[in-house]
Amino acid sequence: MGQLVHTLPVGKKVCGVTLLAAEIYLLREKERRQVEVYDVTTFRLQRRLTVPDARDFTDMTSCEHNRCVYIGDYIGFVYRLDVQGAVTGWAVNHSPRGLSVNAAHNVLVTCTEVRKMKEFSSHGDLLRELTLPDDVIRPWHAIQTRSGQFIVCHGERNDPVHGVCMISADGRHIVHSRGGQRCSDTDQCNVPVHLAVDDNESVFVADSDNCQVTLLSPTLEYVRQVVSRDQLKIDPEYLYLDTRQRLLYVAGSDLEEDEWRGYAAVFSV
User: Fold this and answer.
1) Domain annotation for the chain: domains and CATH numbers
2) How far apart are CA 145 and CA 242, in angstroms?
3) Where are the alpha helices (DSSP H) in the chain?
4) Are 74 and 58 in contact (CB under 8 A)?
5) Judging by DSSP bridges, how do beta strands 222-227 and 212-216 pair with one another?
6) What is the C-alpha to C-alpha distance for residues 13 and 192, in angstroms, rounded to an integer?
7) How far is CA 143 from the centre of its chain?
8) CB neighbours of 139 closer than 8 A, spacing ≥ 6?
9) What does the pLDDT average to over 235-243?
10) 224 CB burial (10 A radius; 0-12, 13-18, 19+)
11) How sure is the predictor about 186, in pLDDT bands with cuts at 50, 70 and 90?
């Protein structure tokens, strides 16, 4: 089981968490200064950054190679925020949900409503677009492995199937799959919404409605529970894994007295 290392300050609704240049980037739903930047060692707040014109954040990821973070906006945009705070962006033409960066330093955007993955260059050139297999009903987040295959989590509360699957590099075939009907068992899925993959290609899954983080093998077999319901204040919605330090960042939000409150915690794994 992962051990709690630190909890970041409670605040507005959290919409993503990532690391860049030894700093933690925490995305919050605010009118101004939406990105909080913390020191990765002391966990002290360093500064706040603004994404102008953004409306409804969906996810955030980072790229050390290009020294920037990418932020999804439900209205159909991805914003590129560099370490100096400069913001550019491009249209996705569908609502982006999950974001990740692949080995080629390109941005992989998961579009839930149309069951597509879109790959963009760092400055927004569309490189390819893949439609997911029919069994993947509502994809939330996708990560491309070094071998070119994709790990995808999918399934909303009312969907018949919830799970995590490995999809071929051309996006057409399911290679491995784990899941079925939504289930509250520790080793099963109940709205899996976000992923992280370590250097061995083991898969961490934010299992939102089961309020836990689980670890799957590279072939998606259940290994163990990493973070339990008792360790979390919220349903986990976003993950980031620091593979060098073996630290897992878990973030999410909860509705308290008609107001969303966002949490983020760091666990050693």
Assistant:
1) 14-129 (2.120.10.30), 132-246 (2.120.10.30)
2) 16
3) none
4) yes
5) antiparallel
6) 19
7) 9
8) 97, 98, 110, 112, 115, 117, 132, 152, 153, 154
9) 96
10) exposed
11) low
Residue 184 pLDDT greater than 60, yes or no: no
> In the chain, what is the greatest distance between 2 CA atoms, to the nearest angstrom?
46
- DSSP 8-state secondary structure symbol assigned to residue 144: E
How many residues can be counted in the chain? 269
Cβ proximity of 210 and 226 under 8 Å: no
Unique residue bearing structure tokens 């966990």:
43
* Three-class DSSP category at 205: strand
Would you state the torsion angle of the CA atoms of residues 29, 120, 192, 81, taken in this order, to the nearest 10 degrees? -30
By mean pLDDT, which of 29-43, 175-189, 223-237 is the weakest?
175-189
- The pLDDT of residue 180 is 64
